[in-house]
Amino acid sequence: MLRHTALFALTATLLAGCSDFPELDAAITPAARMAGYPSLVPIPQILTDAQDVQITEQSVANLQGRVGRLQARAARLRGPVVDSATRARMRKAIARHR
Q1: Are 82 and 90 in contact (CB under 8 A)?
Q2: Rounded distance, CA 71 to CA 65, Å?
């Protein structure tokens, strides 16, 4: 069994080495290729622009709502990926094939 696993791993590794390198130059659009470099902005100007941003009651409420939605999503993702009935069925199938 170990010999088959090692042979499979070696074959998969060798086949992966035979693949073509992706054509990355074609991923850049002509417009992006011709675009100029971004301009550098002095730090005092950046700080002045940052001070103009105001946190309002609405932005706080929006952020708190987003936090709540993200926490609820994280709680759902912490649950089991495979339900117990499917897990039991998979274990029975594994036991049959041993």
Answers
A1: yes
A2: 10
| Cβ-count burial 19-40 (b if 16+ within 10 Å, e if not) | eeeeeeeeeeeeeeeeeeeeee
Could you give the C-alpha distances from 79 to 14, 28, 48, 84, in angstroms and in order? 37, 40, 46, 12
Q: What is the pLDDT of residues 25-78, one digit of tens each?
A: 678 888 888 999 988 999 998 888 888 778 889 999 999 999 999 999 999 999
What type of residue is 53?
V
Q: What Å distances lie between residue 12 and 6, 15, 16, 21, 47, CA to CA?
A: 10, 5, 6, 17, 53
